[in-house]
Amino acid sequence: MENVPDAAEFMKDWKPPRSIQAPTDRKSIRQMSRRQCWKGLQLMNREGKGLCVVTSRPFACGEVICDFHGRLISRDEGLQIHQNTEAQAGHLFFYTNKNGQGMCLDAHEERCHCHPNKSTFGRQIKHSAKRANLSPRLHFVEDDPVILFMATRDIQTGEEIRYDYGDNKRSFAGDGLDLTPS
């Protein structure tokens, strides 16, 4: 009975879990996207896999992990880049904007013009149709599109994050994923 904690003492030190809704407010998303300072992620070089993104803290299901950051271009420009370069499918993100127009975020260049000293996390996330733990969501900040990656389940520290690129589906052809606006 000596090792039983006192309820009052336990409640004094208890802190509620942080809200997973907090990072989805427009101001936080805009700040994190502009600064590319997504916390809890690190790039790791894994033998046989190359560079991948691994968590350095746990993430809750539904939590925003990071964004897909790149140059906004038209669907046709994206298809042209895909056909004329060695760009991997994961470095071009096709989607339909709120006006029904086909668009593409181009991240095939390792360094973007707005963050020349950083390699962004979103472009390094690997593909997995069966073991995906992220889902992309279309989000708008001041009418600018932002592709956010949300955890589809609880993710543990040290776990590699992945999403389904959608490029193996018959409908791909640069049409992009059907994204749910957040």
TrEMBL record:
SMART domains reported for this sequence: SET
Any GO BP: regulation of DNA damage response, signal transduction by p53 class mediator
Pfam families from the UniProt entry: SET
MF terms in GO: histone H4K20 methyltransferase activity
GO cellular component labels: nucleus; polytene chromosome
Residue stretches making up the SET domain: 39-166
Protein origin, superkingdom: Eukaryota
PANTHER family for this protein: N-LYSINE METHYLTRANSFERASE KMT5A
Protein's name according to its UniProt entry: SET domain-containing protein
Source organism per UniProt: Sinocyclocheilus grahami (Dianchi golden-line fish)
Organism lineage string: Eukaryota, Metazoa, Chordata, Craniata, Vertebrata
